Amino acid sequence: MSALWTAREAAEATGGTAQGDWQVSGVSIDTRTLAEGDLFVALKAARDGHDFVAQALGKGAGAALVSHIPEGVAADAPLLIVEDVLAALEALGRAARARSEARVVAVTGSVGKTSTKEMLRTVLARQGRTHAAEASYNNHWGVPLTLARMPRDTQFAVIEIGMNHPGEIAPLARLARPHVAMVTTVAAAHLEAFENIEGIAREKAAIFEGLEPGGIAVVNADLDTTPILEEAATRAGASIRRFGTKARDYHLDTVQITGDRTVIRAEIQGETALFKLDCAGRHFAMNGLGALAAVAALGGDAGRAAPDLALWQPPAGRGTREDVMMDEARQGWVLDLIDDAFNANPTSLEAALEVLAAATPRDNVGRIARGRRIAILGDMLELGPNEIAVHTDIATWPLIAQLDTVHCVGPRMRHLWQALPRAQRGTWADMAEEMVAELPDLVDAGDVVLVKGSKGSRVSLVAESLRNIGRRRRPNNNEDD
Question: Which UniProt keywords apply (predicted)?
Fold first, then answer.
């Protein structure tokens, strides 16, 4: 197996000085996940990566990318010394992209970009050697890191691009130089940094600025801001493929949610297609259809990819569904957990509530005879000056009426909690840790429980505690002795 980078190649790509004649098989920015043979990149983030170079080399790193020889590191250690480590990582990414013959797709969107990226990874991997970003590596260091890790023989590459502020997407798109660029959706996320949703759409549309000549834009046709996306794609010289209920190219016909399955009927370039997802969610159906459009735009086989979408599962915290055994000694004492605690905005919350509303609780198990649909909702962050009204208005959504109880976490969600009908108003807690302490009294076997909130609300602690609640509740066999 050939090296990912040799000392000479890395030095030429970055303009740096290589010490030693080394080669590396991977690229890492974290000593906790570093594999033997990796190039350790000493980025400066919360802590200076130079403080961990000695540890990285001790764990078997093939070399380290640094701006100086760190204290405690031998003068003749295998290093690549550059002026600026982040700029050098970008240069490595640029060089990896330049030497690759891979067909590249870049994905952005207010909601669904990581799920869509993983759908594309799943289906493209069955059609060729595929490389994709890990986790949500979609920012100013995540995109170049993903590119720098790309093997030479990659046939398909999937690059996720995100943003928090204006001006972030275009430089990353130009670095990735995709043949296909996809916008999953445009929604009210990061409104603190933008005047309105049209501003968000223009920033998302900047992904088309990085398209290779003759590139293809894959656009959600169902948005109020679709014209902004299409105008930007046309300005970039791209041809456009549309997906959604208003699209002709990739038309979403019907979506049927049954338990934890989604069955989709679509018209794909004039042909009827029926495919399924092994998870519940109309939003996942839309993302899947968009992924098929992207596969075809890359030159892949969308007909072959459609049934392969059933192999995909949502990433952790993004709608994953699991049974939590409440009492192993009692058959059927199971809680159905929908963990969507990674992030939240109004669009993704509505999609998650639709999944919860379609779920079927189980009766005659647990302490309470009737199973319930329960939502535990944390604050949605970065929604701008109207955040209080946005949270309050959730109480008027038709989907809320289909739930039994809504528990709320955080100062913003307190406004929803106060607006709820008393029959549905559960517990409010200022912090997730406080909600965790009350969980044993809030849920029961037979319930379907959705946990949803922005990452900063820390409601992921609630989801994790639910996984462990069965062990905490298990009866003590000696308590009656």
Answer: ATP-binding, Cell cycle, Cell division, Cell shape, Cell wall biogenesis/degradation, Cytoplasm, Ligase, Nucleotide-binding, Peptidoglycan synthesis
